[in-house]
Amino acid sequence: MQISKDTAVEFHYTLSEAGEQIESSKDGEPLSYIHGTEGMLPGLEKALEGKSAGDSFSVTLEPSESYGERVDDLIQRIPLKHLQGNTKVWKPGMTAIVHSNQGRHQVTIVKVGRFNADCDLNHPFAGKTLTFDVEVLNVREATREELAHGHVHGEGGCGHSH
């Protein structure tokens, strides 16, 4: 089956910039998404279109096709209690997850105070030309429930109630 609108896709990727590996899913769980529902970077989704399980390919994306250009002075003060991550102590340079009305965002901590942190709201990969090495593992029709929820469900369902 080929990747097309409303297919559930599972793939491994290795992400690099200028030949330097930044991150990889190979040591953990593969990434999964529903094709055509804006749940994936536009340039990567375009490259995945028409591929099948077992296909491997490489694609290089300009910032406009991935995380956008950096915006200078995109700093916001955020209460420490709203920062999520694997740490109790925040330090400049660390990344954290923040949930807002617009969804989940990855931010970089610039300065930490007693109750708040000044955070750079640019995605850490903004302004970078990125290369994705992709290995497609699985392609199938998304279920009605997955389409309604907008994401792929694991074997035990999706784990959240609606």
TrEMBL record:
Keywords: Chaperone, Cytoplasm, Isomerase, Rotamase. One of its GO terms (cellular component) is cytoplasm. One of its GO terms (biological process) is protein refolding. Residues 6-79 form the PPIase FKBP-type domain. The keyword Chaperone applies. It comes from the Bacteria. It is found in: Cytoplasm. It is an enzyme of class 5 (isomerase). GO terms for molecular function: peptidyl-prolyl cis-trans isomerase activity. Its EC number is 5.2.1.8. InterPro entries: PPIase_dom_sf (IPR046357), PPIase_FKBP_dom (IPR001179). PROSITE patterns: FKBP_PPIASE. It catalyses: [protein]-peptidylproline (omega=180) = [protein]-peptidylproline (omega=0). Belongs to the FKBP-type PPIase family. Also involved in hydrogenase metallocenter assembly, probably by participating in the nickel insertion step. This function in hydrogenase biosynthesis requires chaperone activity and the presence of the metal-binding domain, but not PPIase activity. This is Peptidyl-prolyl cis-trans isomerase. It comes from Pseudoalteromonas lipolytica.
